[in-house]
Amino acid sequence: MLNFDEDDNISFEYDEEEEEEEDDEEDDDTNIEADVEDSDDDASSFAFESDDNDHAENYKSNTTSNNNNQLDTPISKHLRDDSSVVGCNGTLYLPWSIEQFIQIKFLDALDKLKTFNLYGCSDDDLLIMLQYKKWQQEEVVNEFFDNHDKFYKKCGLLLGKDTNNQFEIVKNFSCFICCEDYKSTEVYSLTCNHQYCLKCYHHYINNEINNGRLITCIEPDCKFVIPHKDISHMYSLIESKHSVIIVEKTLLQNPLLIANARELINSKITYKWCPATDCSSFTELSISDVSCEAQKQSDLKNSNDISKVPIVGCFENHEFCFNCGYENHLPCPCWIVKKWIKKCEDDSETANWIDANTHTCPKCHTSIEKNGGCNHMTCRKCKYEFCWICFNKWSEHNNNYSCNRFRDDQKEEEIRRNKSRQTLERYLHFYKRYSIHETSMKGDKKTLRKIDEVTKIYMEDRRSKNEINNLSWIDIEFLPEAMRSLQNGRKTLKWTYCFAFYLASSNFSQIFETNQDYLNKSVEDLSEVFEKIMDKKNDDKVGTILKNKIKIINLSELILRRQKTLIKSAEENLLNGLLKFEID
Amino acid sequence: MAKPHPFHKRLIKEYTSIQKNKLPGIKLIYNDDQLINYIFQIIILNNEEIYKPDVKYYLSIIITNEYPVDSPQVKFISYSEDENTELSDIPLHPHIYSNGHICLNLLGEDWTPACSIESILLSIQSMLNNNQLLTRPPDNDSYIKHAPLNPKQSKFIYHDDNV
């Protein structure tokens, strides 16, 4: 929802700046859009969220007013380079969205380049030149003045003449690529006039675009480059076949620019994509020296110093660890997380279970679980008959219980098996709790979303009836804060089980467990309050929220405090060596 | 019968053109009904110092499902047309690995849908015709140890464009 809103606005911004090229119709549209938004402006004081980017992801909707703010203050986009955000444990980072990236790295460069008034270059040409030179506008200028003709040629542009790129409908066309004969079809060609049907062109571009590089004419030796605008247009035309409306994409939504941005982001170690599902934003780690950072990251691999775990947030406020690309996993250090995830994913535990609960057939080594009955076993697979106790052939078993005589080597076997049974139980204990909290997080999210909806509908209703005096948005501003602390509290709690699994037991591990219990209690308490609010039998949902306001605020602060205490004390005790991990 | 290739018409057209043009030194010796799998026999005629003109090489071309947007899978194979002849060799060339994989930019970056099976055949033939070195690529040993069966899955490093 948010993304969508923002796209609109940023594109609107862009439209204003670069309108020359767009047709007039669109101009009108934007104006209308702007009007609508202005009239909406009244709502701004009731916004659920302030624009300091500091709220739960659940609350990222319906913030037209915020976007207007951003629009009024273009500073927000130009000051990016030194406006790092400090993460929850002191990591400096910069959250980005793809649109922002394109705007700042690509389109701002285009604007700057335009001020040079390079002779005879259209905006399309400039974009191609910029992309060719990896968006370094100084280099474009240098090369342009250095050897104008050569540079043009290198970029696949036509010198001195207007381009003749055409979308046209032609009759009796036979496409060389798909070899279909069309009575009438739409074709595309560049100045070179190599015509191919639109379907093939689209197919071709779709395949090429993933490289994020400029795309040339299909003809093998033809070096003409397809302008960004035409790629957009082609996508719009193809998409319009599935819907009635043709939606022209702005430069911010340009498929090639997006692909190019992705390529650039992937190729730099200071950028990382947000790992959250459906989140397309990414984060830049604010560091001065890249090589030093690489060293730091490799140090982190085995370090127990969790104050150095680079927890960052993305544009949509999903917290994650920049080092391992996983969600915020404090209080666990990265290497423990890695071990745990691997343990949970692979079947090492299944193997443990098999070891603890089954024997293998002495003849064919198939695993057999004995679920009752007598000790005379017959292997289903090889029909071998044996004794479950001593594993000898049953027929040699003249005196049935001769195998009851004690032998030393069997004792060792027994001890080993018991041990692996214990390890398994221990693992299951922690894993169960870990996964329960993971599921609860999803459940909470659902409840929170519902509460969000209910409140919004209620407030809108009130506002439209002008009953706003008794209750304003400010009165329920505490809600998003509480929801976020519930989510984060649960996340921390979830990871304490991974932490505890590897923890060697000591007096200090008991302190850790006590902290864990406290956090667990507050998290469950708050979750219960929210649950009650959304109870089906509860008719006055908003009323309940207001009634419980103090309780919710207190609980959410308690969670925050307990979470901090837990992490802080884990951090200190790990550093002092009072807490230790035990890895077998 | 299996589903025809989405660009069946194009494949038919290419097939007829291959049959008609009869490129010198190149012979189509096998293709399936779908026109997706081909085996060509190649003889190098104009480079007698390096390749004897009576030695036959065999090239397998498999059309992918994304063809013609995506390039086909092309490699040299050890093959014999009947039981009495020995399996053929993979031609020695600084861009051809001993497992038959070919490092040729037309098959990777430079492919466009306007290229065809014939253009591949021609460029491989010319690659052999102009070769002066009877060697394998410098990284042959390390490459074939880990090479995937499908050469398209390898990321080739183009060692030397001048060869």
TrEMBL record, chain A:
Keywords noted in UniProt: Metal-binding, Repeat, Transferase, Ubl conjugation pathway, Zinc, Zinc-finger
GO MF terms held by the record: ubiquitin protein ligase activity; zinc ion binding
Keyword hit for Nucleus: no
SUPFAM superfamilies in UniProt: RING/U-box (SSF57850)
Protein name: RBR-type E3 ubiquitin transferase
RING-type domain residues: 171-407, 175-217
EC number: 2.3.2.31
InterPro entries to which the protein is assigned, alphabetical: Ariadne, E3_UB_ligase_RBR, IBR_dom, TRIAD_supradom, Znf_RING, Znf_RING/FYVE/PHD, Znf_RING_CS
GO BP, one annotated term: protein ubiquitination
Organismal lineage: Eukaryota, Fungi, Dikarya, Ascomycota, Saccharomycotina
Known catalytic reactions: [E2 ubiquitin-conjugating enzyme]-S-ubiquitinyl-L-cysteine + [acceptor protein]-L-lysine = [E2 ubiquitin-conjugating enzyme]-L-cysteine + [acceptor protein]-N(6)-ubiquitinyl-L-lysine
Gene3D superfamilies the record matches: 1.20.120.1750, Zinc/RING finger domain, C3HC4 (zinc finger) (3.30.40.10)
Enzyme class: transferase
Segments of skewed composition (Acidic residues): 1-52
Transmembrane intervals: none
UniProt-annotated stretches for the region Disordered: 1-75
Automatic annotation (TrEMBL), chain B:
Entry GO MF terms: ATP binding; transferase activity
Entries under Gene3D superfamilies matching the protein: Ubiquitin Conjugating Enzyme
Superkingdom: Eukaryota
UniProt xrefs under InterPro entries: Ub_conjugating_enzyme (IPR050113), UBC (IPR000608), UBQ-conjugating_AS (IPR023313), UBQ-conjugating_enzyme/RWD (IPR016135)
Family annotation (CDD domains): UBCc_UBE2W (cd23808)
Active-site residues annotated for this sequence: 103
Keywords of the record: ATP-binding, Nucleotide-binding, Transferase, Ubl conjugation pathway
UBC core domain boundaries: 6-163
PROSITE patterns: UBC_1, UBC_2
Family: Belongs to the ubiquitin-conjugating enzyme family.
UniProt-recorded name of the protein: UBC core domain-containing protein
